[in-house]
Amino acid sequence: MQATPTPQEIASGMDGLLRPDSAGGAQALLPSPCVQNHAAFLSLGDDGLSCLWFGGSLEGKSDISIWRSLLRDGTWSAAERLTDDPDRSEQNPVQFDAPDGRRLILHTAQPGGNQDQCVVRMREEGGAPRDLSLPRGTFIRAPIVVRGDGAWLMGLFRCVSRPGERWTGSHDTAALAISEDAGETWRVVDVPGSMGCVHMTPVVLGPDHLAAFFRRRQSDHVYRTESRDGGESWSAPVATDVPNNNSSISVIRLADGRLAMACNPVNAEMYPEARRESLYDELGGGDDRPNAAGGCNPIWGVPRAPMVVALSSDGGFTFPDRRVVEEGPGACLSNNSIDGENSEMSYPALLQGADGTLHLAYTYHRRAIKYVRLGTDWLEG
């Protein structure tokens, strides 16, 4: 069995150089000056492949900012810092090349671990940020989808504020934001029966036909919802056959019509002993409010490994073909990136190039962003 690398060994390999692997693809650890790097987002535009993520000392702290690297001639470039709010933790970046030619950068910004006070910010490349007209406590994660009539569709999850109580994730719900004026204003369509369903990831199945997939706070399964009217209404989410550990997923539609999901297909039932109190254990005190009462029961700490790409031929109801990208212990009882206790491989970003190649990026032990290129032979097994 291969030994788990130390944070120092990981850092020494963060040179961005793309190296061939035994499966016929290639891998790299992206350069970053930060000790913590998390929540990759991949974008493929006219200028090639780019990866965004958030980095700093510890998730939730105000030194967390958005960073970006570009793949050029077999090497990922030095990380470029895109944001720097000294008072907020800036997380979950999304890059969107809009139909009107603008490149937009969107991300969340929250004070400390208070996700219910989060705002979503958007800026044109090189421009000043502005807060979107969305309810306080709104988070994003998935790529923006352009509907047939030109409207922009953005998956949301709502960290609902409970007066006098601390956010724990117990009242989070899902929604879709729709903009019909190129991002100037947004209206919100709630997903019924979605408590605990977060990281809404819409995928186009046909004209005005969408499915969306969710991470679950309850750490049971990936859930699925469907819309037949272009996102204006949604069915109540139902469980798929893919286990979920209350960690992020990425779902895309492949060129051949199948759906591909990058995920950690494990859940709390498989690991009943792995628990932590909350997402932000390490941030320290200073908040004497009681935890939010009622709602669902969020489960934190289930291992975040292996990293798997699962395939579906039935529109995402089932994903029976599952291929392991990387094995590992996946320990995530701590967010600390320095002491070596974290070994998660999580928060994947997945996309497919015009030649059929799969591009995958994910958090590697909270210390680095790992990129893996999977050729068409791998996809066909």
TrEMBL record:
Sialidase domain residues are 49-360
For this protein, the record's CDD domains field holds:
Sialidase_non-viral
Database matches in SUPFAM superfamilies: Sialidases (SSF50939)
- Organism superkingdom: Bacteria
| InterPro entries in the record | Sialidase, Sialidase_sf
Q: Which Pfam families match?
A: BNR_2 (PF13088)
Name of this chain's protein: Putative neuraminidase (Sialidase)
Q: Which organism is it from?
A: Mameliella alba
